[in-house]
């Protein structure tokens, strides 16, 4: 099936203005059906009341679980709605019973927030986390992973697409190793959900966390957790309420069956309905067709930027995503992001390099510009970005004014990596 590019743009209100949106790894532009689902339910709440609107929208709420299950080739009882990918990841990670000296294996490209959680768990529980070496292309070394598994290993964690490396990790190989050793495998699919086809059975993961706002093109404040049916009963949530458990007697309770155990009673109903619509929209648009277009746009952008007027692209991996990261030796990343936004209405984001990436540290690169494409972007938009970058670099070299270096607050508010 070929991608219906014109429909993608026609369905996207943000494409009708003068903004060039290349911050899809931060938050994509919502298509009209998603926007209508979100605003429609909020409007219904305003007219008849929040509880009453939820009761009237039972089918739409239930449809969220079917949509996410279809997106992942899972089952609706394995899906939980949460308010972010981070909350979903924490719900899975902290549902495990940790003991001193338990070992977690993860990659050097693991997401910053996940690394902070490992450090926090080490402080609280005495666990260990070990970084698996990279291969020459920057992806996780699966043979090293296999060799590092020991009797104390309790979990494998991996970001499918790191936040600023451009690479795609070999998750199927990791899943095969996890299955061979009977280990749970927590996959952070924050950037890959909606960008490329995901099949949890083929991947072999145990749990998946993802957000709605990125490549799925859902609203902010939405996310989901998928947990394999065979593992759900082994996971005890760190927080329970009357949604995730039943109060059976004055002194007893029963945790809910299925992934509902990870949810709380109060949540963003409008966001949940809209995220279900976003998943259906992505599948109808054909993620399998959008994925190669995203890759081709990103490949073209890397070629246009790398080596041009001093710019360097820092992406790795044999298979690469729609995330393109670059820097300039005489222009700060924050300065570039602010200039692109204020002078050219081009949205990009500021991305901090991973502390574990020694090669970037050796080159003095602490922050990069992240430009992330979606299937609705055009080659002319990429050309506009490159022209703006070239002009900025040349102005820097000639000493002409180009941006406000002291506008630090606005730099960070435009789009800091998430």
TrEMBL record:
Keywords: Aminotransferase, Pyridoxal phosphate, Transferase. Pfam families: Aminotran_5 (PF00266). SUPFAM superfamilies: PLP-dependent transferases. Residues 20-385 form the Aminotransferase class V domain. GO terms for molecular function: transaminase activity. Residues 399-418 are annotated as: Disordered. Residues 404-418 have a biased composition (Polar residues). This is Aminotransferase class V-fold PLP-dependent enzyme.
């Amino acid at each position: 099936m070929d991608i219906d590019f014109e429909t993608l743009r026609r369905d996207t209100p943000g494409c009708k203005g003068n903004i060039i949106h290349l911050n899809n790894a931060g938050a994509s532009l919502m298509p009209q059906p998603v926007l209508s689902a979100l605003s429609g339910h909020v409007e219904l709440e305003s007219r008849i009341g929040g509880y009453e609107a939820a009761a009237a929208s039972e089918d739409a709420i239930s449809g969220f679980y079917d949509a996410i299950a279809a997106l992942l080739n899972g089952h609706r009882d394995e899906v939980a709605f949460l308010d972010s990918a981070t909350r979903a990841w924490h719900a899975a990670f902290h549902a495990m019973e940790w003991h001193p000296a338990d070992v977690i294996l993860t990659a050097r490209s693991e997401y910053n927030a996940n690394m902070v959680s490992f450090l926090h768990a080490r402080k609280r529980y005495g666990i260990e986390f070990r970084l698996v070496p990279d291969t020459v292309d920057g992806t996780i070394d699966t043979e090293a992973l296999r060799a590092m598994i020991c009797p104390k290993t309790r979990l494998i964690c991996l970001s499918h697409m790191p936040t600023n490396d451009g690479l795609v990790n070999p998750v199927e190989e990791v899943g095969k190793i996890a299955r061979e050793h009977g280990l749970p495998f927590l996959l952070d699919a924050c950037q890959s959900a909606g960008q490329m086809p995901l099949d949890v059975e083929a991947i072999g993961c145990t749990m998946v966390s993802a957000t709605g706002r990125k490549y799925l093109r859902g609203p902010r404040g939405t996310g989901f957790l998928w947990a394999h049916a065979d593992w759900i009963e082994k996971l005890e949530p760190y927080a329970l309420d009357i949604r995730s458990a039943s109060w059976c007697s004055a002194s007893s309770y029963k945790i809910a069956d299925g992934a509902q155990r990870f949810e709380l009673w109060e949540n963003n109903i409008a966001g949940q309905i809209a995220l279900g619509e976003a998943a259906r929209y992505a599948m109808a648009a054909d993620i399998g067709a959008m994925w190669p277009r995203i890759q081709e746009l990103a490949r073209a952008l890397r070629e246009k930027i790398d080596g041009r007027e001093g710019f360097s692209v820092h992406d790795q991996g044999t298979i690469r995503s729609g995330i393109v990261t670059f820097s300039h030796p005489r222009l700060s990343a924050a300065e570039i992001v602010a200039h692109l936004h204020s002078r050219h209405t081009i949205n990009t984001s500021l991305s901090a390099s991973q502390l574990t990436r020694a090669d970037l540290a050796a080159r003095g690169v602490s922050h990069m510009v992240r430009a992330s494409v979606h299937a609705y972007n055009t080659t002319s938009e990429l050309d506009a970005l490159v022209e703006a970058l070239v002009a900025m670099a040349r102005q820097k070299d000639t000493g002409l004014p180009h941006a406000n270096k002291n506008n630090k607050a606005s730099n960070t508010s435009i789009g800091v990596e998430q």
